[in-house]
Amino acid sequence: MTRQFELKELIRSDNFIDGQWCAAADGARFAVSDPATGTVITQVADSSPADARAATDAAARAAPAWRNLLPKERATILHKWNALIVANQDALGALISLEQGKPLAEGRGEVAYGASYVAWFADEATRIYGDIIPQQQRGKRMTAAKEPVGIVAAITPWNFPLAMIARKIAPALAAGCTVVAKPAEDTPLTASALVLLAHEAGVPAGVLNLITASRDHAVATVADWLEDSRVRKITFTGSTPVGKYLARESAGTLKKLSLELGGNAPFIVFDDADLDAAVTGLLASKFRNGGQTCVCPNRVYVQAGVYDKFADMLSRRVAELKVAPATDPDAQIGPMINIRALDKIARHVDDALAHGARVLAGGKRLPELGPNYYAPTVLADANHEMLLCGEETFGPVVPLFRFDDEPEAIEAANNTPFGLASYFYSQDLRRIDRVSRALEAGIVGINEGALSSEAAPFGGVKESGYGREGSKYGLDDYLSIKYLCQGNLA
């Protein structure tokens, strides 16, 4: 029978290296707090380069045996891991809500979403095919084989503390790689719980290692992985400046990189759109996790003919959203992750108002609920002079831009260095074809606000990064192609 854990059993405060829970080498610790109240949950290991090196040493020792397992043997372990995640959905969902702040329903949903990647890549482990190259010369046989790239360093963000690390670790393990990982300093507990369940599922010692580090220590700690030639791949989800830093600093050993970076997603509503569907889609895509996702619409462009009607419909729905801590079963939006995030949201709204925006809903902090709450907000009369046009707000703020025709909307949507997600609503089939091809993004939602799936490739273009996660393509970034040429066969 699959073991079920209590919430308190899932909370681990140490690093996990070579199959053992251990304190940081120098004994340092830092606090992890509940964003809803500011209360300290626990103190976790604050790692240093020595801890990063110990994790790499363990991964290097474990690599030969793990890569030599049959793919179906690795798949069996991953399926057991998936079963444990699913069996502990309630406790894991509660842990996500506790340290990240999202409503409990969203926390449980994230567990199911993260587990779907583990299940998907468990199956994909048995589908790593090579090729027989058509013979070019007599007496020679040429083949292409796929092999694990080596030790993978996974660095993950705070907004989806289970899903983001699951969709990096699962393909790495499926491919036969060993892993060293560092979750975000705001949300390390969920990642540690996930590693606990992986160990319970039978992932051998040293195959999966996790260290935690504070904001003050993270750069120096991760630098050890960037400089270590044994670490052959970096997979990172987070901001574009950090992604660029990782690319620069790992160039000395020419590591393979997957970078899922910042976004500035446009959401376009054309005159011919189904407005009810567009409002519902925007609510789903924008207010998931309180607007703290990399694919949240950041700029909403509405054609002039339906602008006022759409603004009225949207602001009514947004005003009805319930803001509350995760402990409230009716909560739809929880606290922001920390005061820095709240200050950025307030700065963007204040700047928009200074540049002529009007508040249709929200537009204020909610200190009566706690230190990190902001009301879901709709702003009319947005323009391109505002900070929120060029910077990702990462909060529950919807700015509405007015446009006249299709070329204007496309130009505005693409006028950003980012290219992760784009959305548009239209019922004109010809327009759907044109706009789908014209938008510069790795992901396009067409009359749909919920895009993510383990079966679909997730990733961006331009300064939103490169590489893909999920889908059959998601395994490629953890594999190297080896060309084999055998002669003297004639």
Q: How many structural units, i.e. domains?
A: 2
Number of helices: 15
Shape: globular
Unreliable runs, pLDDT <50, ≥5 residues? none
Q: In whole angstroms, how far apart are the ends?
A: 57 Å
State the assembly state of the protein chains: single chain
CATH topology of the largest domain: Aldehyde Dehydrogenase, Chain A, domain 1
What is the level 1 CATH name of the largest domain? Alpha Beta
How do the strands line up in the largest sheet? 14-15-16-13-12-18-19
Mean pLDDT: 97
Helix content: 25-40%
- In total, the number of strands is 22
CATH homology superfamily name of the largest domain: Aldehyde Dehydrogenase, Chain A, domain 1
Question: Whole-number radius of gyration?
Answer: 23 Å
Q: Strand-residue fraction? A: 15-25%
Structural description of this entry:
The protein has 490 residues and is α/β, with parallel strands linked by helices. It has two domains: 7-261 and 464-484, Aldehyde Dehydrogenase, Chain A, domain 1, CATH 3.40.605.10; 265-453, 3-Layer(aba) Sandwich (Aldehyde Dehydrogenase, Chain A, domain 2). The protein is 38% helix and 21% strand. It contains 15 helices and 22 strands. The strands form six sheets. It has a seven-stranded mixed sheet, with helices on both faces. One of its GO terms (molecular function) is succinate-semialdehyde dehydrogenase (NADP+) activity. Its EC number is 1.2.1.16, 1.2.1.20, 1.2.1.79. The active site is at residue 260.
